[in-house]
């Protein structure tokens, strides 16, 4: 197996990674054979997976523009993955020059590639850390250097919470982050769910099993369970809805049916 020049040293390129599979779905080039193989296997069950990822990215961009319109100029993107075209810092800094963006990911490829993309950008940085350990993120020099905790922050948890199992207490992690951020901060979430997938659940389960087999279980939660992440937040209109229905730029009915898989929402702390 040939090792690409951009692959950081010490990475086991025989093990698939969630962020590189996502990169493949989005048409990126920072993925290995094992990632493409896992992605294609999942697509045998759910051919619309790339459409779901594209809907995620489109929602993310709309939510970032919304945050800037609300006067927020600090972004904490946890589980940020591999930066592709139209990523958070590009959207935020084009709408609000000087906006601060901190990316957080535990995949070394995502971190290395983010470092390369952000070179020379003094208002954006990346830290290797894990959502399950919020205190490590908050204590990092990158967070301390970029994020002013006295001013509101947009906390982006896009397509990440469904990779955190209940025993790792995702609700506790989200609450710790909420309590560390200034009043008026936003929480931006997308989350996978069987609700809305245009397939019988047993077909969708085949795709979920692919993630389980690569030791990155995909936790499908109900709308009510996803709504619990917003405890302590007031929901921004239109609430917790399928991704194409959150403040759309184009007619939602023109969207691919797979784009309606899962939920998206934005909340604001009082």
TrEMBL record:
Transmembrane segments: none annotated. One of its GO terms (molecular function) is methyltransferase activity. Gene3D superfamilies: Vaccinia Virus protein VP39. GO terms for biological process: methylation. Keywords: Methyltransferase, Transferase. InterPro entries: SAM-dependent_MTases_sf, SAM_dep_MeTrfase_SAV2177_type. The keyword Transferase applies. It comes from the Bacteria. Pfam families: Methyltransf_19. This is SAM-dependent methyltransferase. It comes from Streptomyces scabichelini.
């Amino acid at each position: 197996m040939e090792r690409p020049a951009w692959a950081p040293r010490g990475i086991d390129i025989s093990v698939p990674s969630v962020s590189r599979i996502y990169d493949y779905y989005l048409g990126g080039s920072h993925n290995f054979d094992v990632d493409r193989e896992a992605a294609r296997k999942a697509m045998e069950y759910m051919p619309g997976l790339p459409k779901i990822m594209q809907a995620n990215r489109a929602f993310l961009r709309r939510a970032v523009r919304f945050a800037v319109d609300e006067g927020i100029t600090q972004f904490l993107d946890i589980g940020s993955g591999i930066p592709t075209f139209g990523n958070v810092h590009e959207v935020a800094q084009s709408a609000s020059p000087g906006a601060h963006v901190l990316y957080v990911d535990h995949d070394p490829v995502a971190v290395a590639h983010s470092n390369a993309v952000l070179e020379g950008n003094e208002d954006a940085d990346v830290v290797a850390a894990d959502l399950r350990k919020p205190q490590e993120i908050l204590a990092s020099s990158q967070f301390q250097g970029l994020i002013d905790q006295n001013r509101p922050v947009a906390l982006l948890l896009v397509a990440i919470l469904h990779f955190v199992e209940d025993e790792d207490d995702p609700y506790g992690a989200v609450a710790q982050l909420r309590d560390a951020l200034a009043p008026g901060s936003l929480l931006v979430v997308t989350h996978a769910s069987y609700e809305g997938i245009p397939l019988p659940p047993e077909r969708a389960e085949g795709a979920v099993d692919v993630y389980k087999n690569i030791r990155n279980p995909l936790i499908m939660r109900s709308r009510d369970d996803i709504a619990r992440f917003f405890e302590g937040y007031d929901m921004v209109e239109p609430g917790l809805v399928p991704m194409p229905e959150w403040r759309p730029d184009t007619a939602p009915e023109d969207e691919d049916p797979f784009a309606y898989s899962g939920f998206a929402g934005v909340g604001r702390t009082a």
